[in-house]
Amino acid sequence: MLAIPHPYPEDGAAKWVAAAQPGRDFAIVLRETGEVIGGISIVESEHHRRAELGYWCAIDVWGRGYATEAVRAVIDHGFRVLALNRVHAECHGDNPASRRVLEKAGMTFEGRLRQHSYRVDRFADKLQFGVLRDDWLR
């Protein structure tokens, strides 16, 4: 989700919902109420049998495990339904919470691209994470 603008525009969520594709884009919702608290997408590269995932959650639910649960579910969907060999994701180096989400979801840190992104008036590292089908299904 490195392409998400910061600050996030007022109509950003509505535009994301309008462009959502079934089987690729999913809402993250509270089970109790059905309230949408975030979104997660998996973008497949069929030829390579891999996909990249990205996600976002509302600030008021950060730290409650919703993103980790959603990432795990979408990784599992990628391997069991889409028959992928690899799922990968990235986050900014200055976002330790997102890094924890990816690691807790079972992804492995694979590398750092130094000062790869320009955001909020400064450069930020990009961290790459991935998981392979065989490792996930074990």
What secondary-structure arrangement, pairings included, does this model have?
Elements lengths: L11 H8 L5 E5 L6 E10 L4 E8 L8 H15 L5 E7 L3 H9 L3 E12 L2 E11 H5 L1
Parallel strand pairs: 3-4
Antiparallel strand pairs: 1-2, 2-3, 4-6, 5-6
Structure commentary:
The chain has 138 residues and is of the alpha+beta class. It has a single domain, classed as 3-Layer(aba) Sandwich (Aminopeptidase), CATH 3.40.630.30. It contains four helices and six strands; from the N terminus they run αβββαβαββα. It has helices at residues 12-19, 66-80, 96-104, 133-137; strands at residues 25-29, 36-45, 50-57, 86-92, 108-119, 122-132. The chain has a six-stranded mixed sheet. Strand 3 (50-57), helix 2 and strand 4 form a beta-alpha-beta unit. The radius of gyration is 15 Å and the shape is globular. It starts with 11 loop residues before the first helix and ends with a helix.
The gist of it:
The chain has 4 helices and 6 strands, in the order αβββαβαββα.
Tag the structure with descriptive keywords:
138 residues; six-stranded mixed sheet; single chain; 4 helices; 27% helix; Aminopeptidase; globular; alpha+beta; 38% strand
Task: Identify the CATH homologous superfamily.
Answer: Gcn5-related N-acetyltransferase (GNAT)
Strand content: 35-45%
Q: From the coordinates shown, what is the CATH architecture?
A: 3-Layer(aba) Sandwich
Quantity of strands, as a count: 6
Structural class: alpha+beta
Give me the Rg, rounded.
15 Å
Mean pLDDT: 91
What is the class in the CATH system?
Alpha Beta
Spans where pLDDT lies below 50 across 5 or more residues: none
Strand order of the largest sheet: 1-2-3-4-6-5
Q: Quaternary status of these chains?
A: single chain
Number of domains: 1
How far apart the termini lie comes to 28 Å
What global shape is seen? globular
Largest sheet: 6 strands, mixed
Order of helices and strands: HEEEHEHEEH
Number of helices: 4
CATH topology label: Aminopeptidase
Helix-residue proportion: 25-40%
